[in-house]
Amino acid sequence: MRIGSVTGEDTSSHGVSLQHLITLRNAGFKVIPLDENDRPCEPWTPIYDDPNYWTVEKLNEEVSKFRNVATCVGMTRKDDQGSDLYLKCLDIDSDNVYKILFNLENGKSLEQYSFVAMAIQGTFVTKTRKPNGFHVYWLSHEQNKAISTVDCKPGFEFEIKTDKRGHCTLPPSIHIEDNNFHYKNFGQDTIIISDKMYSEIMILLSDCLKTQSADNQKYHSYPGNKYRSPIVLSNEEIQLICDSISPYYKKGYRNPIIYGLCGLFHKYDVPHESAINVIQTLAKVDEDRKSRLVTLDETYKKDSKAVTGIKYFLDALEHAIGVAG
Questions:
Q1: Whether residue 247 sits in one domain with residue 192
Q2: Is residue 14 part of a domain?
Q3: Which residues, 6+ apart, have CB-to-CB distance to 291 below 8 Å?
Q4: Fewer Cβ within 10 Å of end Cβ, the chain: N or C?
């Protein structure tokens, strides 16, 4: 589920265009005017505190202030049902976190199955000037605890911005230290609404934190964690998973892919019903479709600690991709 559309990353001779500011605002960004030196033109506390601070009329009156543009996070525009939404941003600050989120291991990359690559396919993702720097944006219906670099182990820094601790520069702004660098959106032109992305990130990056506090301990990534909420997949997420895997779902490689996928789902608390929907969609033209569902049922009868995990699944995909490629 997404709101708004962030297109037309254009600038005028006076800075960021009014139309671009309106599309950013409509998508859920809480825009902050920046000057030529990438500094806020004025205190942005009122923008943070008031989700409705920017109207089209007010943007039109103050568009000249936007030589560049940033966003703060926190409560923003409501969804279609009138429920509050909170803007969040994951800021990748280190090479090690980049490797984890891009699923890099032993010099090999399966980017289409990495967190960042999946995010690029589903939401607004800004490339920063750092070689491995990205900002991943999403919206959810609840506020979460912010994570800062001081919470992280040395060399494993990342941030999850959820409150008033900072702002993030948006396209098409120019970097303060490099006039040739323009921030760009490498993802979609919309911001995804996901109430589980925060927990997904915490599962992946829990070991990067200095201490396992009561707040983040529940997200620790070992299988069968009784504190972790089930990962219910939306229809859109199911289709995205199947679209990513189907090019490599070839005869001779289907059994290990299904076996690995079923184990991965069970190990990471994907409800049986969601898993069934994925297998049925993926195997819709598979003559052994019924046996795939039997494999799923048998897997879910086992202890989740005893089934295959992400390594087996990725190995199966790597073999299939090597043949398909």
A1: no
A2: yes
A3: none
A4: C
Mean pLDDT of the chain: 84
Rounded CA separation 16/209 (Å): 37
The DSSP element (H or E) to which 135 belongs, if any, is: strand 134-140
Burial 199-227 (b: 16+ CB within 10 A, else e): bbbbbbbbebbeeeeeebebbeeebebee
| Helix H or strand E segment including 200 | helix 197-205
Domain boundary among 208, 243, 268: 208
State in Å, rounded, how far the first CA of the chain is from the last one. 32
Backbone angles phi, psi at 199, to 5 degrees: -65, -35
Q: What percent of the chain has pLDDT over 90?
A: 45
Q: Which residue has the tokens 């989740």?
A: 304
- Specify the range with the lowest mean pLDDT, choosing from 9-23, 56-70, 85-99, 225-239: 225-239
Tokens of 263: 């184990």
What contacts 263, CB < 8 A, 6 or more positions away? 299, 307, 308, 309, 312, 313
* DSSP at 196: S
Rg of the chain taking only CA atoms, in angstroms: 21
CB proximity list for 211: less than 8 A, separation 6 or greater? none
Residue 226 has which token pair? 């009784």
Percent above pLDDT 70 for the chain? 86
What is the distance of C-alpha 8 from the center of its chain?
Answer: 22
Q: What is the mean pLDDT of residues 232-248?
A: 86
Residues 257 and 160 in one domain: no
Count: domains in the chain: 2
> Do 81 and 164 have their domain in common?
yes
Q: Taking a C-beta distance cutoff of 8 angstroms, is the pair 194, 119 a contact?
A: no
